[in-house]
Amino acid sequence: QGRKDSMVIGMALEPPGLDPTAGAASAIAEIVQYNILETLTKINPDGSVTPLLAESWEVSPDLRTYTFKLRRGVKFQNGEPFSAQTVKFSFDRAGAEKSTNKDKRTFANLSTQVVDDATVVLINKEIDPDLPFLLGQATAVIVEPKSADANATKPVGTGPYKLDAWNKGSSVVVSKWEGFRNAGSIKLNKVTFRFISDPAAQAAAMLAGDVDAFPRIATRVVPQFKANPQFQVILSGSRAKTILSINNKRKPLDDVRVRRAISAAIDRKAVIEGAVDGFGVPIGSHYVPGAPGYVDTTGVNPFNIEKAKQLLAEAGVKTPLELTMTLPPPPYARQGGEVIAAQLAKIGINVKIQNVEWAQWLSGTYGNKDYDLSIVSHVEPFDLGNYAKTDYYWQYQSKDFNAVYDKIKTTGNAAERNKLLGDAQRILANDAANVFLFQPQWPTVAKKGVKGLWKDMPIFVNDLSTLSW
Amino acid sequence: MPLLEVKDLHVQLQTQRGPAEAVRGIDFTLERGETLGIVGESGCGKSITVQSLMGLLPSTAKVSGSIRFDGTELVGLPERAMCKIRGDRIGMIFQEPMTALNPVHTVARQVGEPLRLHRGLSAAEARKEVLALLDRVGIPDAASRLDAYPHQFSGGQRQRIGIAMALACGPDLLIADEPTTALDVTIQKQILDLIRGLVAERGMALILISHDLGVIAQNVSKMLVMYGGSVVESGPTSSVFAERAHPYTRGLFAARPELGTPRGARLATIKGSVPELVDLPKGCPFAGRCRYTVDACHATCPPEVQLPHEHLVRCIRLGEIAAEESIAA
Amino acid sequence: MTNTPANTPLLEVTDLVRHYALPRERLFGTPPMVKALNGVSFSVRPGRSLGIVGESGSGKSTIARLVMALDKPTSGVIRLLGEDLHALPKDALRKARRNFQMVFQDPYGSLDPRQTVERIVAEPLEALGETTRAQQRELAGESLVAVGLRLADLHKYPHEFSGGQRQRIAIARALITRPKLIVADEPVSALDVSVQAQVLNLMQDLQQQYGISYLLISHDLAVVNHLCDEVCVLHRGLVVERGEPQHLFAHAEHPYTQALLAAVPRAEPVIAS
Amino acid sequence: MSAVPAAVPGTAPGQTSGFWRRAMHHRSFVIGGVLTLLLVLAATVSLAWTPWSPYEMDIASKLQKPSAAHWLGTDTFGRDVASLLLVGARASILVGVIAVGIGLTVGTALGLLAAARRGWVEEAIMRFADFSMAFPAILSAIMMTAVFGAGIVNAIIAIGIYNIPTFARITRASANAIWSREYIAAARACGKGSFAITMQHVLPNISAVLIVQITIRFAIAILAEAALSYLGLGTQPPQPSWGRMLSEAQTMMFQAPLLAVFPGVAIALAVLGLNLLGDGLRDLLDPRLARAR
Amino acid sequence: MSLFLFKRFVTLIATLIGASIIVFLVLEILPGNAAQILMGPDAAPDAVAALAAKLGLDQPAWTRYWHWIGGLLTGNLGDSYAYSSPVIDLILERLALTIPLALLAMTFTTVLALLVGVTAAARHNKLGDVGLMGLTQIGIAIPNFWFAILLILVFSVQLQWFSAGGFEGWDEGVLAGLKSLLLPALSLAVVQAAILARITRSAVLEVMREDFVRTARAKGVSQRAVLWRHVLRNALIPVITVMGMQFSELLAGTIVVENVFYLPGLGRLIFQAISNRDLIVVRNCVMLLAAMVVIVNFVVDVLYAVIDPRIKAHDI
Ligand SMILES: Nc1ncnc2c1ncn2[C@@H]1O[C@H](COP(=O)(O)OP(=O)(O)OP(=O)(O)O)[C@@H](O)[C@H]1O
Ligand SMILES: Nc1ncnc2c1ncn2[C@@H]1O[C@H](COP(=O)(O)OP(=O)(O)OP(=O)(O)O)[C@@H](O)[C@H]1O
Ligand SMILES: [Mg+2]
Ligand SMILES: [Mg+2]
Question: Please, which of A42, C198, D76, E254 could form a disulfide with E267 given CB 3.0 to 4.6 Å?
Fold first, then answer.
């Protein structure tokens, strides 16, 4: 294969706009983050956080004050300079009243102070040791005041690539920005993101040579590429947790024995095989291997049909028990749902499957909490806090957990924090708050010659700066 | 050499109930300028006979015997060669003026089609010819109506257009298959006058099919009477009208109500109805419906009997009939 | 009109006018009209028959439709047995229909191909709704025999019959209510001469047997001459001449009648071979 | 009066026995009938027995080739394809029967009404048909499922609704042609009302057209269900249908093409059977063609 | 004719108004709110409310309906919630693909159907006829998304003649554009062509029994010329009636086929917009589709009169 300076990357979904501070779709970040728009910090494949637009930062001992030293001489693609003022503008904008930022709450808690052109101080109302990580996410991109409002269609950032064209419904084309501070290290001149949602079409596009690399391709089609010498398959870990969420307030699901019975009735291996074609690692709690403080809790509620039946009987549940399972569109949910329904049938739970669109899922299941069971992949890297919210859609409530979580929030010491995290995981596992199914592995299929693909994916990005042939 | 010589013509059709002999052994000749009429009941094979001359029968039909047209054998002639003759040397006028024209093409195009096909005229040249033809057949103000469609003409006018089409290339033989049945008497008269005039003028041979004896009497010099696929009587028109030798011919003539007969008189009828082709009897096709039937009639098809003036009849009981008649008289 | 009425007329038509409005060609402006009938009057006395002749489009079928109350006249009155047909309420009209029936031109199109002969013939009875199924069958059989068909034919379908036989079935249907008047619109023009003769004879026989009157519509003068006591010559929606057929055809006065008569080809050979 | 009807070879009075005797000699009717019967049989048998449970998963033995144990192999969840096909026949029949039923009853009624009443009634009905034609089945199904949730019932209704204008138009066109026949004028002359004429004369005479249309629409309904299933709007899991099997197999076309072949062939055979049956029925119900073939 | 056009135009407008009301009402009762979808499950409630206000979702339905109709008339359809760009631009972009796709598919349908239908009719009841009709039976039974994948398998993956999908826009040249629409159009056309071929065949057979065919042959016109010049045009009335209906089915079919070939067309826009609750897009697209179908029906009506001079305006 000769030297090539362009690449076509496949994506399952098209972003609704290109401004990650205005929309929540992960597809936005997959195109713009680190490529067009940049953040103060950068989250690396291994989950570590390193400087990007910031050169370094310091944290006060009480974990409330962060001082960022900024990179100098950085310019936006429209020629405006990057400075402490732009950082303040960006963060204030994200936390403002009218903001539609997904992480609005985080930014509302921050007060940003400009010290000099190259120094900002962030003061956090809450304690969050993860703040540098949060500031590496797409919602925290630094935008330029004049162009910010047009970012949805014409994003202007400090990154190595600029937007060339957006053929709605079909593709986004970006090309190398010669004004980038480190333009020499960028290998690809032109990258096309092509949107293909149908799994068979994804496979066809790869096989026909239309697409060079396809991160997070549908798991269904991966096996055929494994055996094909023209392709490489990379399995990357993630921070996502695919769970069978349980409405903890619904009878009889409010009984911990029933929830445990459901957990015990599920053979995670088979679910992983059926839902994501084996591309997943079983988990026992809402936390994934590789994340700091992980403990293996898969043994807490092991697969055991007899035990499950017994638990149901103890809880006084009359079988067959009729439950509905509301499934959003992604294949892992739809396919996993079928498998789980079949498994629950074995302990006398008749599951009625109800397929819904995201819109209905959000309003009915998530919003009105009108559901029994559902399957969702929670992709936020660190979201244990949702178990502390009483009004979250699974309506879990535990004093023990809340106490542990409050401590986590205020603990800066890593070892201590990790121990607390372990406790939190064990509580959730014991309570069988949800059925924790697996940590998905994102398969990436690429042509043999593609180099520099991310091996792991704590967040959804396609970092073009590392790619080459 | 006669223009048309038909010998022992047989046509077999595929019907839903199996193969049927629609035409069984017809002979006749036609000289240039001569006129021939064919009469007979509905379904007796008149149209099939003339369509076989034109090679217009469905592809499942089997034609045997001989049709010599101006020295060319038409039976078995390949379709391409037949296309050259149709519309050029033989023209045909059909019964239904309402349906015989293509409703979606202009009159100029339809009438001009044979000219362009056989004479190789350009569209403009053909148009000029068509105008002359339409004038000739008496379409009023033809020039302004060239681009009209058939439905914009009356029945009589449409039949004239059909005639113009058949005459376009100046055929040697004109076949008119019941050209006036669908028209009312006054228009029928106009059309027949027109055909008669054209025949006289151009010296074409004419085959005229009708079951209206009046029409035949006024327009042709010789005639065939058909029944059940065969010719039961043939000869000069005057002679056939005068003799009515075959019992079927008699029946046909007698069944016709005529102006001037007193009211209340019963019409003579032929009992029974025309047999279906598939179950035609072996012998004389009219046997069984005929008053004079004897066993011998059922045995074989009767041979031709020669009467004066080249008048031929297929009946074995002519003597008895004549005898009975004289007694009655 | 030369005869003085012996008794009240069976059918009396006065000043019948029917204009058809063609759909408008443009938005504003009056729609074009076809003046099919422009004031036709005639009457038929019981047991007598009237023929109507005329060229195509002269309005013959329009008269038939109006007399059968299948269509409403623009103006004019049609009285059957003294009652104004078009003023009768729906139900009364249906009852009255037993007295007048119709035979259509096309023996192939006027019989429903999917019904048995029994149902076809019994249809007028069924519409009247006064008889049981069994009675209908019996009467249908009788009617069929009256027109020279067989009882076994009741179970057959129309396609199994020849044109002449079908026209007999149509007549059997018209006959089944023992009507006083049968309107026949070109009943034999689709038939062959020999079959035509059979049907005409049949109609004549039935008239004598049951005292039926015919309103016979035809363009064939000879047919009308054969069956009718009186003829009306229709031309452009007007009766231009009327009288006894024998007389009329011998001494036609109106030029149109004369032209009509002159156009009939005589069965006398003119061309010498 | 002497005319005696010629001997007309005709059918015996006993019509019903004659129908089956004729039917048994009608080639397309027999083939179509057998195929359709097989379809119904498959659906019926599946109520009582299937080789394996169609819901039983055995992920370990997924995507197996056809074998003695699994006649047609297994799918991505290790379910038995043969059993799924048998059970799937039920949904396909359901979709076809109900969707066509809706279109047939409502559409034909509207079409007959339009032809019988003419004038503004006809105009209104035909404009209504035009109007509903503007919402193709998939479009209305998408909108309906968005409102009421995905499911076979909504799919069937959406397909059924789309069938209404189709049947209405075809019925009206054929019925108008029948209304201009002389035998209708004859019936009117007898004093029959529009309703009686419609039921006794018009409907039987347009039945041939309707039968052909029914079989075509039936086939299209099965395919439409497949397309809706492809978009996730048809039959919901775990209930199998041929369309859903096909759409699931579609993602596996490159690995396990056989998975897509079996339901495809099943649909093709069912459609073929119905078409042949329809053609045969049309011929057999026409007294004019009764003696043919 | 002018009266006919006027009447037809009035009904066309009435139909469109009816359609607009239905579309609006149906979408009105859709559960789910665009703002929530756009923001995702974890978004702050006040952020969602802010977005809803920005999108004008908090106004009463009646106002929004008038607003919409007014916009339709002035060509200002508003901005897409999801793409935050003008809907009219979005739709026009998508139409640039969907219309050529539908037309291409319709062309394939017509050409295939006429060829097969007329050929089969010409060989009535012979081997060719039986064979072709057998093929159409199979054609009717093939779902289009399935056939699409088959085409991709053969022509893109095995032979690599075409790309497996996608559409680069017309800037790359008309030929390149058509090339990427070829397989999608073919997979859309196959079922419709099979149905249309059967209808063409029976229509042609029907016309072949008419008298004027015999007249034409009597003029010496060859069988083939009779078929194409005289018979076909007369057989077109039932054929274009069905074609009119098929056009709407084709348009709907694009939703599926655009998905398989990942084409940026109107169908996929609608499908995505519905799941995004991007109602302003859905509403206008559905309205557009409905309008296209209504207009196609109108064109079909006018075509009747063009094809058959006997049909005067009032017969329609
Ligand atoms: N294509 C055909 N296939 C089978 N039978 C046919 C076909 N055409 C005509 N016949 C039959 O052949 C016989 C002779 O038909 P032909 O048309 O020659 O009759 P005809 O004498 O012209 O009658 P008419 O006066 O009614 O025109 C009829 O019984 C007819 O039914
Ligand atoms: N429904 C109608 N609408 C418009 N015009 C009509 C209608 N019915 C008949 N006409 C016209 O009325 C005139 C008389 O028609 P009618 O059918 O009574 O003629 P006819 O004497 O029976 O002719 P034919 O001998 O051809 O049957 C014709 O010019 C015809 O075109
Ligand atoms: Mg003939
Ligand atoms: Mg008339």
Answer: E254
